[in-house]
Amino acid sequence: MSLSARKARKDLSADSLFRLVRSRFKRFADPRSADVDIPLHDALMSAFAMFSLKDPSLLAFDERRRDPNDNFRTIYGINRVPSDSQMRAILDPVAPADVRCPFQDVFRRLQRGKALEPFVYLDGHYLISLDGTTYFSSSKVHCPSCLEKRHRGGGVTYSHQLLGATLVHPDRKEVIPLAPEPIVNQDGHTKNDCERNATRRWLKQFRQEHPHLLVIIIEDALSANAPTSTTCATPACITSSASSRATMLFSSAPADCRRGRPDANPHPGR
Predict the structure, then answer these.
(1) Do 41 and 20 contact (CB within 8 A), yes or no?
(2) Mean of the pLDDT values across residues 3-14?
(3) Mean of the per-residue pLDDT values for the chain?
(4) Neighbours of 15 (CB within 10 A)
(5) What global pTM score does this model have?
(6) Is 195 helix (H, G, I), strand (E, B) or coil?
(7) Three-state SS sequence of 8-65
């Protein structure tokens, strides 16, 4: 194995990627006063460790925190681990847009290490799966950022949702998560945010970050519509679950657009 190949393999190890994420977290501006007991990057790395270790809840991670024999502090480079309530208080003010940076850092590292090459699917294109999900719902607990669903009977359901994005390949078990987009009420808007609007925002940000990456966007049949396909009139094309509507929309696009030509317009004259 050549020296460059060994270096690339080392750069893609878990320890190296954890250090990369931690170094980015250390650059986050802490909105609290200078005299804090738990640094922001320790709280962020603790949250990252909780998801990386697949703990089912904050309470389960808090139990791990109390176990003196658990060496996750060493693995993730954490000095001070917050309790569940401390983690909520510290991380709630962090802007979701800031968390895109670590995702970009890891993605670039994977690109340089040629770890993305096995994910090429068709004519140099990668598959990106987008889908919305609800990760919190309650009829009592809510905050100003909650989406509200008002029922005819008079009740209200509060929820938090996001648009998840993942680089996938049908022949591989591994997936590469990309930065999600929160589905949250936008400033100045009275209506609830929705998955379609979040998709538009995500695609715009993704194209700014990766202007030359050829991708095929995969969504469900709800996205088989003209506004979404117009948004994807870049080096990408959109596929949906099998339905007559999706087939008609895809078939109506020019061949260049279906092949992912960046200069193709799926709806000429618009």
Answers:
(1) no
(2) 71
(3) 83
(4) 11
(5) 0.80
(6) helix
(7) HHHHCCHHHHHHHHHHHHCCCCCCCCCCCCCCHHHHHHHHHHHHHCCCCCHHHHHHHH
